[in-house]
What does this fold into?
Amino acid sequence: MAKFDLVIAIDGTAASGKGTISKKIAHNYSVPHLDTGLLYRFVGYKVLKGFDPVSAVDQLSMSEMEALDLKTLKVSNAASEVAKNPLVRAKLLEFQRSFASQPGGAVLDGRDIGTVICPNANIKFFISASAEIRARRRYKELLGLGHSISLNKVLKDIQERDERDTNRKDSPLVPAVDAKKIDTSDMTIAEVYASVSRVIESELKK
Ligand code: C5P
It folds into this structure.
């Protein structure tokens, strides 16, 4: 555990590996982790069930969120649609900020953590990889979860979400100016983790 509140913001493109790295950091540095994509997935899921996006935020429940299958392409797409809605983003902001302000700190991963949610985070990373490589990774993950899907469909979903996330007006996907950028296209998870932990270790020594 760090001697001060250690807030780490990890942003990046879909299926870039940011979730895996965030979980590993949370585990090794004993800080809680929030996958903020799940919040948007939960709202997208509820919208698919017929709820209004803003009222869907009021139904947010961590236990329901964990119980639902939110990793499908249908939900990914619905999530990136609701993520364009400024009212949804505004309502989710306080929840994310209060998670980040826990004593001891936290790791949050998403699209706007370093830019909007935690602009004062101690450390910021921006994780990316080529769309083809990310599609192959997500494809394997979805097959492992028992989904039947084609690689092409996964690639198309990732490209469409990149486009939507990057070009929306409110909180677009952009690296914070002070984020350390890592392109994981040709790196293993162990190599990415070694790179991020070097940055964290040097911050902890300050
Ligand atoms: O990270 P994940 O792929 O689960 O996120 C699903 C969608 O939620 C993203 O495509 C993006 O549109 C939205 N999102 C966001 N801001 C965040 C996290 C996710 O807009 N901080």
About this structure: The mean pLDDT is 95. The chain has ten helices and five strands.
